[in-house]
Amino acid sequence: MTAPSADARSVAPPRLDGHPDGEARSASAAVRWGGLVVVTAALLAAWQILPSGVQGDGSSVPKLDAVLKALGPSGEWGEYLRALRTTLGEAFFGLLIGFVAGVVLGVLLGESRILRQGFYPYAVALQALPPIALAPIFVIWFGLGMESKIGLVGAATLFPILVSTMAGVAETDRGRIEMATAFGASRSQIRLKIVFPGLVVPIFSGLEISVVLSFLAAIAGELISANAGVGVILQVYQRDFRLAEEFAVLVILVAVGLALALLVRLARHFVLERMPNE
Amino acid sequence: MTTTEHAVELAGLRHVFAGRGRGRRAVQDTEAVRNVDLTVRPGEFVSIVGPSGCGKSTILKMIAGLLRPTHGTVRVWGEPVTGPRRDIGIALQDATLLPWRDVMANCLFPVELHGKVTDAARERVSGLLERAGLAGFETRRPKELSGGMRQRVAICRALADDPRLLLLDEPFGSLDALTREQMNIDLNRIWRETEKTALLITHGIDEAVLLSTRVVILSERPGTVVEVVTPPFPRERTKELMATPEFAEVCGQVRDRLFAAESKVGG
Amino acid sequence: MSKVTPAPDRVRRREPAAARRPLGTGLAARAAFLLLPPVVVGVVGVLLIQLVISRFEISGVVIPKPTDVFEVMRSEIFMEQIGESTWQTWKATLIGFVLGAGSGVVLGTLMAESRLVRFVLYPYVVAFQSLPKIALAPVCVLWLGFGLTMKFSFAAMLAFFPAVIATLAALSTVPRTRLEMATAFCASPRQRFFRVSLPSAMPGIVSGLEISMAFALIGAIVGEFVAPSAGGLGQLLLTYSEAINVAAEFSVLVVLMVLGVLQNKILFGVVRAGTERFFESSR
């Protein structure tokens, strides 16, 4: 009987294939990277070869090289960046409003049980209303400029922050409050030293959702009615059949979305490091 | 190979967990088990005790066919282990009952996997549940049971498909001392009545001595067999036995060996 | 949670008779205690808004009087329009949800069960997830026109990703010991998936579906916003918006809110409570 050699364990024997440890038909790194490269190459090739170009009928997809050209130095970067600045500005200021309002209302509702009971059903109902449906009303109130989109973003980002703040206040660890009370802390001291520091992490998790929502709501608002921004140029390019530019903007949006996600992730790392939850 | 068939036979067993990653986050290779030789004869109840992290569970997983040894061989009933076997029943520290099944369906789980659910199987499981003091609880869900009852269900499940070998990985580790003692008496009875071969992993010295026909003592990581103690008691074990000086003496003997094993590696 | 469960064989507690109140008054008091604050807030709020608007003669364009909104909702024309529009929106939502969430669960399962599929598709899922998918609405209009197909396709696209992510997450957090137990009892990969992994992941998948359904509704409405003549509640909102009929817009929003509550909170509330009860979410 020969003992299996040390490197034999990297190749799972047939009957062990079910084992969670050496995951099933566990593909080696080479196969996995190979698969990724092949799939990516096939997708890019299909994108270049299959589309028949922009013809003005319903099947229009721009070829890869046209999109790359629209993303290159000869692309409409002035237009892209102006639109992006408008949209990100709307998202930022709207988020600011939603954040402040959400935290203030969340603390109020969290602190008072009776207020919470009174308003909670309405908060739940308003949350079930797709915030984007408010867009036409904000246009009536604030017009076609940035203000209406800022209002929409504020309304959309308010609830996640409100709900998580409220939950954070209401679910403050009783043990900690009892401990502080036992040491003779006053109500305001408890609030300042126990409740509020414990809110950082819940508020941040609400903020994480709201950051994504703010970008989305700004674009949605612009699609419905606006005079500038990403939503506007997307519709203009679509109407004018400038699909290379349309797709270029979508690619830029993926990049911006990834950057936002990365930013949130770094911020979370930073917050959790300074303010560990447990 | 001799004709006498051992229930379990471990020869020169060694297991190394492969390290992962590079640079700062690298996890080094860890040798969990080194040169373990051990045989379990049919009908025996063998316990493996050792300090935590000495690779006890690794040995059990290799016998169960869940892990492949890096070196050496594992044989069960004379055959090299290449994967999980149907004639092995296993119970782990965590009862791992499926919460959406009732007690009966949980016990029948292995039988069902092997495609053998019959009235006879149901009857056998009913008998097992009765012996484990769970008669009348067949239709209860796991969350309605106490921790001790869940562990008893897990042991019934291990025995449900009438395995020849029972593997127990600290099945009572998470229970309080009193419940644990009661469980041990119950397990001893079930073992005698079903005439199985059993291998128990534990860090409880009393538990090992109370249940076993042989106690195997493992050193700190990498685990290796340092001593085998044979408690000189009849197969039937009782609470009264635990109060006797003989019992205390055997326990003391095991404890000394364990401490010796630890300090030897530590120094 | 499970730690609190007493052993049925050892602990048999019964409330002392004196401590038990008559069932009727207990329930009624509890219900009143729960219902009173929201009812008070609702009634006082509506009255206050009505009073402030009439007192300071605020234009109906800014905020319509609650009575005006009630008026609109009672009118026959509105009832006719709203019924048809709600059905059109919800039809698109439902078809989009079934297609999008269904394929999302399938893809999430493939990614969870095969390391190769997961590795190859992960970059694409991440990229698409970080794209605000609303931005695809104009392209969808171009490809699929202004009708129901465009609406439900867009709804499906929004419903797809939450289902993928939730399924992948739920299947990859199945307790390891459960899988090990099944493997030790000689479960085949197929048996392990259908008898252990999938039931264990059910609560997680269902809460993902809940998010999918909410997104499908958003998708249907945005589809109606960007595609003229698509019909539905979104179209109705735009029509009233052009006519600067804010009271009617508020009425549509109320209906939409009720639809949202029925669909996202009540329907899924029941489904989720059911799955969590049956499969015992380990959370």
From TrEMBL, chain A:
Chief localization: membrane
Presence of keyword Transport: yes
Annotated transmembrane regions: 30-50, 91-110, 122-144, 150-170, 190-207, 213-235, 247-267
Organism: Actinomadura spongiicola
Subcellular location: Cell membrane
Protein name (record): ABC transporter permease
Stretch list, region Disordered: 1-23
GO biological process entries: transmembrane transport
Similarity comment: family membership: Belongs to the binding-protein-dependent transport system permease family.
UniProt GO cellular component terms: plasma membrane
Superkingdom per UniProt: Bacteria
InterPro entries: MetI-like (IPR000515), MetI-like_sf (IPR035906)
Keyword Phosphoprotein: no
Record Pfam families: BPD_transp_1
Keyword annotations of the record: Cell membrane, Membrane, Transmembrane, Transmembrane helix, Transport
Lineage: Bacteria, Bacillati, Actinomycetota, Actinomycetes, Streptosporangiales
Membrane-related topology note: Multi-pass membrane protein
Residues of the ABC transmembrane type-1 domain: 84-264
From TrEMBL, chain B:
The UniProt record lists the keyword Ribosomal protein: no
Highest taxon in the source lineage: Bacteria
Record-linked SMART domains: AAA
ABC transporter domain span: 8-245
PROSITE patterns xrefs: ABC_TRANSPORTER_1, ABC_TRANSPORTER_2
This protein's UniProt keywords: ATP-binding, Nucleotide-binding, Transport
Keyword Magnesium appears in the UniProt entry: no
Pfam families (alphabetical): ABC_tran
Annotated GO MF terms: ATP binding; ATP hydrolysis activity
PANTHER family given in the database record: ALIPHATIC SULFONATES IMPORT ATP-BINDING PROTEIN SSUB, TAURINE IMPORT ATP-BINDING PROTEIN-RELATED
Protein name per UniProt: ABC transporter ATP-binding protein
Organism this protein belongs to: Actinomadura spongiicola
Automatic annotation (TrEMBL), chain C:
Native source organism of the sequence: Actinomadura spongiicola
Protein name (record): ABC transporter permease
Superkingdom classification of source: Bacteria
Listed GO biological process terms: transmembrane transport
UniProt keyword Zinc-finger present: no
Domain ABC transmembrane type-1: 86-267
Keyword Transmembrane belongs to the record: yes
Transmembrane segments: 31-53, 94-112, 124-146, 152-171, 200-223, 243-262
Gene3D superfamilies xref list: MetI-like
